[in-house]
Amino acid sequence: MTKFLLVFLWFVVSIAVTAVNANDLNDLGKIKLKALRGDPSSQFRLGFHYSSANENLAEAFFWFEKAAKAGAPSACHYVAKAYATGRGTPLNLELAKFWYENAALRGCATAMAKLGDLISVDEENNTDEVLAHAWYALAVENGETAWTERRDRLAEGMSEETLALAHERLKEIKGEILHLKERSPTPPSPTKKRGEYLFQNEHKYFGDLKDGLPHGYGRIQSPDGERFFGEFKQGKPYGYGTHFSAQGFIIFSGLWEGDKAIAGNSPQARLRAMLKSP
Predict the structure, then answer these.
(1) Which of 36, 148, 245, 250 registers the highest number of CB atoms within 10 A of its CB?
(2) Predicted local distance difference test score (pLDDT) of residue 185
(3) How confident is the model at residue 276 (pLDDT cuts 50, 70, 90)?
(4) Helix count (H) and strand count (E) of the chain?
(5) Is 257 strand, coil or helix?
(6) Contact 75/64 with Cβ under 8 angstroms?
(7) 258: left (phi over 0), alpha (psi -120 to 50) or beta
(8) 196 phi and psi angles, rounded to 5 deg
């Protein structure tokens, strides 16, 4: 068995063993490879896996955000929830509203209700009763009946004129809801440029390129046989990646940023996590 094949098998195994509850470890490995190549469905499945099975919230958010940016409705909802609770990413209610609205306009009824919650309890006194009532009403219409009481309680404190405005806003929102065909996430582009790149330290790269630099999914091999499989941004590892020794042992598998391991099971990543903690 060649050294390359040995290392590659270690790579497949490493991305598979992260699934504590998986029935088929090789299947999870295939999902991760598809996610790295831009498949929104696979990215969402990984996000759900890391948020439920391993409780690695930083990595879960990473995959959810990728799927959300491709337009996956459920992923938009989970990204919004992460921003709203500060789990896996810093708390940011404005970004939570943004992503809840993205999910709601793609037909997610729970996101409609959560958006109503955020708007109706705005801590900066930017409460918009008209808009909040409209989202509550739309959520109830789409099956989220648990929010009926909140919709009605909000309506009790509104004048007839304001309530009429809420009904008009509801009609406007319905017109903004995307049609079923428009809700599907964007599939990965098959036209990415792929090729080789040689770093100054003689590390060799093969994979996706942008403006001549590693950007996307690819792999690196060092002169002494170490390898890295994962994502790159403007010439550096950025995103999910796995680093192997020349003997095929996993040195680190997890998230990278600016060529540094930031979230995962390695001494470097744990130290960076400690330094970032309050």
Answers:
(1) 36
(2) 80
(3) low
(4) 11, 7
(5) strand
(6) yes
(7) left
(8) -105, 155
The fraction of the chain above a pLDDT of 90, given in percent, is: 41
The total of other beta-carbon atoms located within 10 Å of residue 156's CB is: 7
Q: Kindly calculate the radius of gyration of the chain based on its CA atoms and give it in whole angstroms.
A: 22
Beta-sheet strands, E only, within the chain = 194-198, 204-210, 213-221, 227-233, 236-244, 250-257, 260-264
> What mean pLDDT comes out for the span 206-230?
89
Spatial contact of 55 and 87, defined as CB atoms under 8 Å apart: no
DSSP secondary structure of 70-90: TT-HHHHHHHHHHHHHTSSS-
What gap in Å lies between CA 53 and CA 102, rounded to an integer?
26
CATH classification of 8-182, choosing from 3.90.550.10, 3.20.20.210, 1.25.40.10, 3.40.47.10?
Answer: 1.25.40.10
